[in-house]
């Protein structure tokens, strides 16, 4: 990490928070927005890397839509992750960017990007994600619910079994995916060590916030704890499901352990 090797300049740098879903990052994003001021914060449009598409034609449709958005952005000069209500003329003044985006693929502002990220125990993150997206869909219309019948009807154990049979490592290793663009610890580790200003595990959020504040001069509000009611009322995964998740999330586990160890060495 670059914390002790890079001097942060408020007038020349922009903090880029790479937010993997369900890592406790919403609290940090809100803290950054409050610290720099809403007019200097850019919250990116949602781009959920590693999202499960239960049916092949939905995956194809999502890929097509994403491609169209990217092509349209390149033709118009408006980055495809910039919200519609955000004036691109404000980009040079942006002091913090946050969103579910792969590191390095955020809009350019003319400032030097200073990357920060959080990671969470990968099994805990996966289970939290399962119940979060189920609760979102429970509140959605029938059209959205029809696209993910397994998510809505399976328990966590059966869902993990089904997803494991598909053989796709991305939904289980989303944190590597957001850092490196692929579910590979080695690829993500190199980027963390070479390009990231500060990264920490969610359990070290208070120390992370203090170090980031000291380095940037920003007063970042404390973490706000949230536990979804659906997860709180559900039984935990079976022991055999936990063992299966340990194997399936191996790349994210190595990244989590690496970041935690490196942060504690600072």
From TrEMBL:
InterPro entries: P-loop_NTPase (IPR027417)
Domain of life: Bacteria
Record protein name field: Sulfotransferase family protein
Organism name: Segnochrobactrum spirostomi
């Amino acid at each position: 990490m670059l914390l002790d090797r890079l001097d942060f300049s408020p007038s020349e740098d922009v903090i880029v928070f790479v937010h993997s879903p369900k890592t406790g990052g919403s609290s940090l994003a809100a803290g950054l927005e409050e610290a720099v001021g809403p007019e200097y914060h850019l919250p990116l449009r949602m781009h959920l890397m590693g999202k499960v598409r239960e049916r092949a034609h939905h995956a194809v449709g999502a890929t097509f839509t994403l491609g169209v958005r990217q092509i349209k952005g390149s033709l118009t000069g408006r980055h495809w992750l910039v919200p519609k209500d955000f004036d691109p003329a404000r980009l040079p003044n942006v002091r913090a960017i946050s969103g579910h985006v792969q590191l390095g693929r955020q809009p350019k502002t003319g400032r030097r990007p200073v990357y920060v990220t959080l990671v969470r125990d990968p099994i805990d993150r996966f289970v939290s994600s399962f119940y979060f997206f189920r609760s979102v869909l429970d509140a959605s219309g029938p059209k959205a619910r029809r696209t993910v019948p397994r998510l809505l009807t399976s328990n966590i154990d059966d869902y993990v079994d089904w997803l494991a049979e598909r053989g796709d490592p991305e939904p289980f290793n989303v944190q590597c995916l957001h850092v490196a663009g692929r579910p590979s610890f080695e690829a993500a580790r190199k980027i963390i060590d070479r390009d990231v200003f500060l990264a920490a595990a969610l359990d070290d959020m208070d120390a992370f916030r203090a170090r980031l504040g000291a380095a940037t001069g920003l007063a970042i509000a404390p973490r706000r704890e949230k536990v979804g009611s659906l997860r709180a009322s559900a039984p935990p995964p079976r022991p055999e499901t936990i063992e299966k998740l340990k194997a399936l999330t191996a790349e994210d586990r190595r990244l989590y352990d690496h970041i935690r160890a490196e942060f504690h060495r600072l």
